[in-house]
Design a protein that fits this description.
about 200 residues, mainly alpha, Arc Repressor Mutant, subunit A, 2 domains, two-stranded antiparallel ribbon, 10 helices, 2 strands, about 60% helix, elongated
Length: about 200
């Protein structure tokens, strides 16, 4: 990836110098820069979509799903997993972790299951993401560098930093209950499965 960035930097310089030249070489270099720039934009878009790990995605889906249920209603892990279309064993570990963090209540037995802990509906998505991801969500480098700061920035750092800041700020303003209401009203989908909430 770093090699690609080096090549992009070289092509940028050459394209600038030959921009006014009518020969085919300048056209080819300008074309290569457009391709490289488009590739970098795709990387940024892909990483923005992957700011959540699969674990965080499942946790958010489950929490919104439970927030949409009647207060205190308990659901079994397999029922939640089936309605959301996610692996039941994997989801069980996530739900147990959310219970330890007091976002969910759980009980065993025939009438047991998981329900949203009182007050947890007010938690923001940023609360959930920080809980699941830890500080990496704010510090991780798009190119995978162990140290990527303003002083030691990767080629994408300054482009990604304001985007990431805006994303995290937005997550901090959105609560589980607001998303649950939006899903219930049909404004948004929670899963690829149709009518998941009506089956819950």
């Amino acid at each position: 990836m770093c090699h690609m960035s080096d090549k992009v930097g070289v092509n940028v310089g050459l394209a600038t110098k030959t921009e006014s030249q009518p020969d085919g070489r300048g056209v080819r270099l300008a074309g290569r820069w457009r391709v490289a720039r488009a590739l970098l934009l795709k990387i940024i878009q892909k990483e923005a979509a992957m700011i959540f790990s699969r674990t965080s995605q499942y946790a958010i889906q489950a929490l919104i799903y439970l927030a949409a249920q009647p207060s205190g209603k308990q659901l079994l892990n397999r029922e939640i997993a089936q309605n959301l279309g996610v692996p039941s064993p994997y989801l069980a570990k996530i739900l147990q972790g959310l219970s330890r963090e007091k976002l969910l209540d759980s009980s065993r037995g025939r009438t047991g299951g998981f329900s949203l802990h009182p007050g947890a509906e007010k938690a923001s998505l940023l609360d959930v993401v920080l809980l699941m991801e830890g500080p990496r969500v704010d510090r991780e480098c798009l190119l995978g560098l162990k140290v990527c700061q303003d002083e030691t920035a990767c080629p994408l750092h300054r482009k990604w930093k304001p985007v990431k800041k805006e994303i995290l700020a937005t997550l901090g303003k959105v609560t589980l209950i607001s998303l649950a209401h939006a899903v219930q009203s049909g404004q948004y989908r929670l899963t690829d499965l149709p009518l998941a909430l009506s089956r819950g």
